[in-house]
Amino acid sequence: MNPPRLIVIASGKGGVGKTCLAIGLSQALAEAGQRVALVDGDLGLANVDVQLGLDPRRDVSDVLSGRCTAEAALLPHPAGFALLPGRSGSAALAALEGASLQGFVRMLRGLPMDWLVLDLGAGIGAAQRGLAAAADLLIVVATEEPTSLTDAYAVLKLHRRDAPAGLAGLVVNMAAQPARVHAALDAACRGFLGQGLALLGAVRRDPRVASAIRAQTPLLTRHPNTPAAEDLRRLAEALPGFVAVPQLA
User: What angle do CA 14, 115, 186 make, to 5 degrees?
Assistant: First the structure.
């Protein structure tokens, strides 16, 4: 069995709906019959379990300390995917670097899954950059706000430096004019990084996303036929065309 494909979702700044996107994408992939693990990779403010209304007994800090394996820490969700929870306020993941970071990624790739969706916390610290560089595909999430575009470009610039052959693409969230957001970032990447930026998809602004968050329920469960839910399924359908299945070493 080949290792799972590792998708890392990053943004540079908070408040762009990255965690909702990670949850929705995980559920959409699971709906398509894929085995999916959602990994909470926020380095200090882990909250995926809160958004899903779960109370985990084990989390990523237990895995990093050797108290349990990554597979033992997985928490199944009724939406069809499993969650590897983070721990809010823990410095264990933030301290990862070098061999320890590579070991953590190897543990993740050993999970019996088809896809790993890692929700990376906002920021551009060393551990965040290392996890982004390890991705088979880095998804950078941006909105139409100027600060979001600036921070998204910073993530892309560092990713190009850390993983020159790495694959990255853009998802425009809460989108009214996704083509404009993509055009601005694509032009910056072409002009300063020497390479364009693929637009992987866009998720329309949808007030029912907030309703799902308040209910601690995935959007595709609570509001399965909304515009945002349709966009998330379309993104899940497109992903296999962007990233190949990793081969066993």
Answer: 50
